[in-house]
Each structure stands twice: as C-alpha cells, then as structure tokens.
Amino acid sequence: MVKTLKDPYGMKGALSMAVIETDVIIIGAGPAGLMAANVLQKRGVDFVCLEKKPGRSVLSKALGIQARSLELFEFLGVNKPFVKRGYPGPGAKIHLAGKKPSYVEMYHVKSRYPYLLIIPQHEIEEILETHLNDRGGVISREHEVLNVVQEQEGVYVTASHNGETKQYLAKYVLACDGAHSKVRQLLDVEFVGEDEGITFFTGDVEIPEMKEIHINLHINDRGAAAFFPYKDGSYRVVGFDRTRQKGPRRKEMKLQELQTSLDTILTTSYQVEKPRWLGYFGTAHRQVPNYREDRVFFVGDAAHINNPLGGQGMNIGLEDVANLCWKIDTVLKGYAGSPFLDTYHEERAPVAKEVIRNTTLELKMIQLKGFPGKVRNWAGKAALTQNWVQAIFAKALSHVHNDYDKTPINRSFKDKSLPRRAIQAGERVPDQLLFMNGTTDERLFPLIQRLGYVCLIYIDSYQPDLVDFAYAFAEKANEAFPDMIKVFLVARGGTVLTERNELPIIYDSYRHLDRNLGMRKGSMLFIRPDGHVGFHDGSADLKKVMGKLKRYFI
Ligand SMILES: Cc1cc2nc3c(=O)[nH]c(=O)nc-3n(C[C@H](O)[C@H](O)[C@H](O)COP(=O)(O)OP(=O)(O)OC[C@H]3O[C@@H](n4cnc5c(N)ncnc54)[C@H](O)[C@@H]3O)c2cc1C
C-alpha cells in the first residue's frame, strides 16, 4: 500500500513523500533473506525484500546443506530441487598424519537426509529465488538500504534505487544483510567477538587425479586442506598454509599460489586446474547480544558469524528464518502478542553460541603442531574408530539436534508425567511414517508442510471419552484461534467408534508415534510450523490443555 505521509522521520522541514507500507521488510537477499521471502510468501504475509546488488552473487561460498536445513526446505516445499542438484556427501575422510584415514560417516544421522548435500551457495540462492518467483514473490534488486528508524507505529526504511530515494514503513524488519550489516551499524548494535587471525585459501577447481566420494580432510604441522566433491566431479578446496600467514591479507589468489600451498601441506599433492573461483579469506566469530531490537530482528550472518569449519554458518541462518517467520505471521494475524517474538532470540541465540564455541575450539585443535599436534592425532584417530563417537560428530554437524527444550518457557511446558522417551516442548519432531485413514502411505513432515500447526491427539477406539475430549479440544481451539490448528486423531489401532468424522484419523499401526515420540492414550502433541514441539501434554484435561494453548501464545 502506498501512502503519503508528512515528515515520516521527524526531520523537520523535509519534504513529505510517498511511503510504501508493508507488514515485513527483509533487508538482504542472501540465503537468509531469500529463505525468509519464501516462508513469508508461503504464509501469505505481505513483505518487501530489498537487495542492494543487481544480481545474485556468483561466488560459491557455502557449499554444504545440513540435514536440518533440508528438513526445513521440506516444510517450505523446496527440498526436491536441492536433492536433485546436490551431491549427497556421505561424510568425511580425515587424514591425521599416518597412512590410514579416520572417518565421520553421516549415515548415523536420524533424518531422511543423512548426508551433507554439497551444492555451491550461488545454486542454493538460485533455487530459492526461482521457487519464490514461481509463486509470485519478487526481490527488489538494486535497492540499497540507507536508513532504518524505529517509531511507535513501525519501522521506517529508506532505500536508494537507481538514484531515487524510496521510503517504506513496516511492522517488522528482518535484517538479513550479512556479516557487515548496515542495520546493525544504524541501530548501533554491537557485534561481540573477535577475529581469529588465520588466513584461509579457498576455490572451486578440477583435480583430475582425485576420485573421492568423501570430503577429504588433511591436518598436519604444515596446515590443513579439505576437498569437497561436487556432483560434476570438480572440487571445492579450503585450507590454511602455515607458511603464508604473515603479511597483509589479499582477497585474490592465483592458481599457482593454491598449488604451492597444497604441495606444502600434502604429503602426496594433487595437480589443481581450471579454477572457477579462487580467494583468500579471514575468519572471525561474533554474535549480537540480542537478536531482537524492538521491531527489528537480526537473522543469519547479521546476527552471528563463525569460521567455516563444519560448514555451518549459512545453515544456522536458514534455521533462524524458519524459527522466526511463522512467529511473526502468528503475531500479525493477532493470535499472539509481541512478547511471543522474544522466543526467537531465546531459542536461536544459544544455537549460534554453541556453534561458535565448537568451531573456535576446532580451529584451535587444527592449529596444534609438534607434540600437542601428535596428541590430537593419536586421540582423534582412537576416538573416530568408535561408531558412537562418529555418531556424536555427525549429529552435531547435521543440526537435527538443535532443540529448544532448555529455554525457560519451553521448560515450563514440560509434562513430567509423560514417559521418558516422550518428546517435549521445544524439541525437534522427527519425521514419522503414518498410516492415514483413506491414504496409502503418508509421513508427518508433509502434513506440517501443508498445514503448519498440527495437533495429534492419541486416542483409543474403545474409550469414547478420549474421542469426545479430542472433538471438544478441536472446537475450543478453533474458537480461540480460528482455522489455525489442524487436529488429527491418532488411534492405537482398530476402528474408531464415533459417529463424527470431521477429524482425520491416523492409525499408529507401526507404533511409531508411541515408540519414537512417546505418545500414549490421552496425550496431545502440539507441533509448530517449524517442526518443533509446541507442547506435549498427557492429561486429557480440556481446561488444562486450553490453558496451555492460550499461555503458549503469550
Ligand atoms: C569463503 C566462504 C566459505 C563459506 N563456507 C560455508 C559453508 O561451507 N557452509 C556454510 O554454512 N556457510 C559457509 N559460509 C558462510 C556463508 O556464506 C554465510 O553464512 C551466508 O552467506 C550468510 O547468509 P546471509 O543471507 O545471512 O548473508 P549474506 O549471504 O551475506 O547476504 C546478505 C545480503 O544482504 C545484502 N545487503 C547488504 N547490505 C545491504 C543494504 N544496505 N541494502 C540492501 N541489501 C544489502 C548483500 O548484498 C547480500 O546479498 C562461507 C563463507 C565464506 C566467505
């Protein structure tokens, strides 16, 4: 909507100008901004996405999509083009001195995507933008944000477009404008942390002699080098050369410099050729103290950066978006108040904090040399022969266990009466095979993708009071939150003896919901649109669960 407002910034004497009103402004169209545009588009939220560059970056930068990001792409309905175009890397082969490598295998990850999907960032951005465009969404390119001012009525954003100044007013702003965030500077928000002082080399090259299906990582006293196989047979190479750490850092790198570094680091080197992209970069770890500044939210690299070990930076940005956008939509629809949006920082900040802690430690470990380096190699090799150690690494890298169950609010929803195996408020809901009445074969994730909020109520076909409870809850929930929550009956088995047929029925014939999610007769599992548990309650008490539902949307 375009309105003419007088003096929107309180700048006395300035000319009045047309202000474009929208619900949400996304600043930046990197992976985080593009994901946000897609999620808001899917949910029908009015938004504008402002990007200063004329086209997508051609730099490959991030190259790995972790399992959790693929699950989030599935909720968006965009998982298939990624899986089709990427290479499902089965894990890493780690050379810690000596001839025999150690392995971290991703098949340990309990997800439909037990691999690191290797695909360059420019293709990730292309897939996300195409998905958006196909559904009618657009990115406003060549719109550079110059100013952001928060007022009581909303956030005013000024952007420059081909020499013209444009003004916007939004209820919320997502700062997805990257590590050097302009919004952070404008709002005077600290980016707490430090540079790590190491210069890495990177590039996309061909290596005719290399035939690797695993990520191939070499760590020794001379430095480190990792090779990531792309689907077309070329490789991303990343590493650091101890002999090239002094002097000012350049961004550009020549192919011969890369060759020299690889020859220095590797015991048996490889010839690299046909570079598509080469460069040096430094690393740092930093995080904003609060992801929320009133109506402005910091997302992705604007909120946190870490070194590239484990390929996590972009992935945690995508997860930030998935956590935030449904909450904003819920508040915009009037189902929750502004404090509900505080849970974005509460849930997401600890995840980046842990990634920063781990990647900082890993970088220190990789830099060890001499005797400490030998100890690292010995301990690393011994540990990685154990399947359970590999499983811990694989799970941590995949992000499928980035649960939010430790936040004070989610803790307050924990139902201790449920079995120990029961998933509780804040935890990720793993996908399950379902026997849906009237269909052949269904899974839980597509239900979440189609419906958003999903509520499962476990009943017994021979206990009509539980069926009545489920119907009464569905009615009350619909009165309080019209058309928001889709309720399903989950029957342990047998025919459901009820005259009514409005609620769809899932038969827990495989006992997956019982065994894997800890559901039992009378329990209600309320699932959020990002695939985490809202709450799981075992009371079958209508007053109690309605109280919880209302308290959930503070
Ligand atoms: C060499 C390298 C290797 C990496 N490898 C990995 C990896 O393997 N795995 C991984 O997960 N991550 C990796 N990363 C990190 C990853 O690239 C970032 O985490 C990711 O790009 C962050 O996405 P973002 O959308 O938050 O920010 P960005 O990608 O930085 O996007 C920000 C966008 O905002 C726009 N913008 C900025 N200011 C304005 C403004 N004033 N007005 C309008 N638009 C603006 C920019 O033009 C840009 O398009 C790597 C990074 C580098 C540099």
Task: Give a concise summary.
It is built from 15 helices and 27 strands.
Largest sheet: 9 strands, mixed
Rounded to an integer in angstroms, the radius of gyration calculated over CA atoms is 25 Å
What's the overall average pLDDT, rounded?
Answer: 92
CATH architecture grouping of the largest domain: 3-Layer(bba) Sandwich
- Helix fraction, binned, reads 25-40%
Look at the helices and sheets and give the structural class.
alpha+beta
What does it look like?
With 554 residues, the protein is an alpha+beta fold. It has three domains: 213 residues, FAD/NAD(P)-binding domain; 91 residues, Alpha-Beta Plaits; 145 residues, 3-Layer(aba) Sandwich (Glutaredoxin). The chain contains 15 helices and 27 strands. Strand 21 and strand 22 form a beta hairpin. Helix 1 packs parallel to helix 4 and helix 2 crosses helix 3. It binds flavin-adenine dinucleotide (FAD). The site of flavin-adenine dinucleotide (FAD) has 33 residues, from helix 1, strand 3, strand 10 and helix 7.
Any key phrases for this structure?
single chain, 554 residues, alpha+beta, FAD/NAD(P)-binding domain, Alpha-Beta Plaits, Glutaredoxin, 3 domains, 8-stranded mixed β-sheet, 32% helix, oxidoreductase activity, acting on paired donors, with incorporation or reduction of molecular oxygen, NAD(P)H as one donor, and incorporation of one atom of oxygen, flavoprotein
